[in-house]
Structures are given as structure tokens and as C-alpha cells.
Specification:
This protein has about 130 residues and is α+β, with helices and mostly antiparallel strands. It has a domain of about 90 residues: Gyrase A, domain 2 (2-Layer Sandwich), CATH 3.30.1360.20. It has three helices and four strands. Strand 1 and strand 2 form a beta hairpin. Helix 2 runs antiparallel to helix 3.
């Protein structure tokens, strides 16, 4: 993984810097129209609401608020630092936290006591990458 220089405060990254960081650090995210984005596919409305609530909690705790597109079986998260009018370190930090929490699969942790959701359509949650 490449080492990136950290920009302090609200310094905005260039498109080239953003693309390179996404490739190295958040490969499921992409840059479009000045926002970094990620579409999370869910198994249905219940799961979609759980994703929205999880993202909402993380964003509020971080005091950095994404735009969300919500549908029956997906949630698209869009991040941009509104104050800076571009992508800053805050966006990458929140995207990483969202990715870490939503993509966590306890059943894949070796030796952990948490088993994760059963492999049964009735209990499906996210469509993991």
C-alpha cells in the first residue's frame, strides 16, 4: 500500500490523488462528480434500513454527513466535505470506517465467538464483495 501524505484540516485532494487513494485504500469506492461513492447491495428493505442506520450513526459520531440514495435493495453513500467543497482526509476516514463496519463478517474471523448470519436466505443481510 502506498504511503499518502496527510492533508490537514480542509485541504482538498486533486482528482489524481483521490483516484490513487481509492485504488489503494478503498477499491470498491469510486470518484464521480466530485464525490467519493460506494453502492452497498442489500437483501431487501430490512437490511437497507440497517445499513442506513449504521452509516447514520457513524456519520453523526464523526460529525461528517454523507448524502445517501436509498432503495429497496441498495444504499449508495456519497461523501464530500461540504465546507471545503471537495474530497478531504475526513471523507477518506469516514469511508474507511463505514467500509470496516458494514463489511465486517464475524463468521469469517478465525476462532472468534461470533458466528455471523446463517447462510440462509431468510437471514441474509448485505451482499458482501
Amino acid at each position: 500500500m502506498a504511503q499518502w501524505r496527510r492533508k490537514g484540516g480542509n485541504e482538498v485532494f486533486s482528482s489524481e490523488e483521490i483516484e490513487a487513494r481509492l485504488k489503494d485504500e478503498l477499491p470498491q469506492w469510486y470518484l464521480e462528480d466530485g464525490w467519493i461513492r460506494r453502492k452497498y447491495k442489500t437483501s431487501g428493505w430490512k437490511s437497507t434500513l440497517m445499513v442506513v442506520n449504521t452509516v447514520g450513526h457513524l456519520a453523526e459520531a464523526a460529525w461528517h454527513h454523507p448524502d445517501l440514495t436509498v432503495s429497496y435493495a441498495f444504499v449508495t453513500v456519497k461523501l464530500q466535505n461540504h465546507e471545503a467543497k471537495g474530497i478531504t482526509e475526513k471523507d477518506f476516514a469516514l469511508a474507511k470506517k463505514i467500509e470496516e463496519v458494514l463489511m465486517w463478517q464475524p463468521g469469517k474471523e478465525e476462532g472468534g465467538p461470533l458466528q455471523g448470519t446463517p447462510d440462509d436466505p431468510r437471514f441474509k443481510y448485505l451482499k458482501y464483495d
